[in-house]
Amino acid sequence: MKKKSNRVTITQVAEKSKVTIGTVSHVINGTAPISPEVTARVQKVIEELNYIPNMTARSLRSKKSKQVGFLVPNLNNSFYPRILSTFINHAFEHEFIVQIFGYEYSVEKELQVMNNLSSNSVDIVIIINGMGDEAGINRLLDMHKKVILADRFSDMKGVNCIFFDNNQAILEAVALMKSKGYRKIGFISEPLTFTNIQERFAGFQAALSACGYAFAEDDVFICGGFQLDALVNGYHYMSNILEKRDKKHLPDAFIATSDLLAIGTIRALREHGYQVPGDFGIISFDNIEISSFVNPRLTTIEQNQTDMGTELFHLVQAISENKNVSDKIILPQKLIIRDSC
Amino acid sequence: MKKKSNRVTITQVAEKSKVTIGTVSHVINGTAPISPEVTARVQKVIEELNYIPNMTARSLRSKKSKQVGFLVPNLNNSFYPRILSTFINHAFEHEFIVQIFGYEYSVEKELQVMNNLSSNSVDIVIIINGMGDEAGINRLLDMHKKVILADRFSDMKGVNCIFFDNNQAILEAVALMKSKGYRKIGFISEPLTFTNIQERFAGFQAALSACGYAFAEDDVFICGGFQLDALVNGYHYMSNILEKRDKKHLPDAFIATSDLLAIGTIRALREHGYQVPGDFGIISFDNIEISSFVNPRLTTIEQNQTDMGTELFHLVQAISENKNVSDKIILPQKLIIRDSC
DNA sequence: TTGAAAGCGGTACCAG
DNA sequence: CTGGTACCGCTTTCAA
């Protein structure tokens, strides 16, 4: 009849240690000065019983959960999993639990998730990218959740932002194109919905004029459709363009807003008989792992995903300890020169 | 002084509805026959107050949480995020919350995570791959958690398994190599720690003899080192081999246990001046998205990640509703013929 | 059909 | 330093 190996509770520990549950709680949390003897006794019992505090009870009472909600656009572009990967490792190390949600680039779904999250146990919510979700963010704030916006700029008060500097490296990129003799530079991009993409577009225009190139609306290519699959989209999009415009009427170099987009684009280019970087040079953003394993190896503007993950966690940690942190954290980008330009 | 927009509780709803909290609970959960009038009144108040039940309190009391722990090797190989992606979407749809953990191919860490999980609020734990963790699984079972093993076979009782049929497609793959005239087939693999890899190795040997090839221990290449980065590992590993053995002493075709491994391998091959599929044919496993965008496009054995994610969720759903489900679910693999062989 | 009350397993406050 | 105890917000008997 001793089959029911149910969970050990603090009460059992208290009884076996001949103290009250309050005391046990104190030795566990260090919330009161307990004598060395009692401390040792209690700890011994904890060991013996293999007692682990019930997180649910703990957070019900303390209103703190060490749980963070992590909201990503999706998990297919390896950019996000890389950030997440680093983050969850730090989190585990420090006993934070991370709940994961994907909003699939949909505002509606993003809002739904936020609504959901506002009634749930997390006390910090991280949103990567996202837009048009201010109502949701305010809701979260009302419920006393902390919110962190990543890879995104915002002026909302009460939220922390962490994002890449989208202006510096693109200047180097355009300068590189110039030095390689490319005549005209186009911009091939995902829809300009997220602030990071908007910034890149602005940075692109600035770099163009800084390097003496003219900006032509005609050479901006916004690759529509779902953002779910940049790889496939980039491929179809460029294939389409090549059906309609020949090389003469196209830029001979492109800044692409993501590596995946670039890889898709390059495949389309090659299938139409063009060489990269011979006929067209391409520099993209991200530096995901595969970038150095495709042909040609991508020249790309790195946004260090590991750094982002780590910084994000530091932020979470600081916030949950009520430490003072800067509202805005800016991470550098870095031009990685390989073969595509 | 009405600033503290704190969360609405069931007590407030009860007071405003002039009933007791028990009654409110019953109308929310349908756990007792409440009169239409009272039901309507309570629901109206719930609307007005925008009341959302506190999940923490609810699960403390009911010992059910609709939370599932999802344990993956890591998030860098896009195989896992793809499964996860599908899973979290289904989960969200049905109001399940998923906590994510990465064990980074380390048994120790896997055990740590499990230990952690056993004291936490999840009631179902999904483990993808993993090994040597039977103690952890039993611990989970002791704590009355359900456990699901994915992409892995096990005979442990009380756990559900869902995995791919690792025997059929590889036979087709080897037959294809035969028909293309490849003379000798090697096996380039990650360490044989996981059951899926072991099965592939067995399937490989069976396929070899079925197609009239001889098996040579010498042509089995186990790519050691960390499994974290198959791409980089495959590259270094094959580079090394090519330093020591020339084409004559090597198989002219390879079965690789993952696409990433194959992509790394192919780069090494090409850097040494070899053509794929001219000099060497390669067929790998997974069919991750990038597989059709690298050069050459990979001929690969698809393991449908979306299907795995979906099936996994169905399993979770069935288990959490105490429905009867088969202990073992087998998913088919499928040979996708492209250019690498 | 509804009310009353006992906890779930902890934390935190107050006494002594 | 340690004990006692009132909750956290909800579910779940048990009575009425």
TrEMBL record, chains A, B:
It comes from the Bacteria. One of its GO terms (molecular function) is DNA-binding transcription factor activity. SUPFAM superfamilies: lambda repressor-like DNA-binding domains (SSF47413), Periplasmic binding protein-like I (SSF53822). SMART domains: HTH_LACI (SM00354). The keyword DNA-binding applies. Residues 8-62 form the HTH lacI-type domain. The keyword Transport does not apply. Keywords: DNA-binding, Transcription, Transcription regulation. This is LacI family DNA-binding transcriptional regulator. It comes from Congzhengia minquanensis.
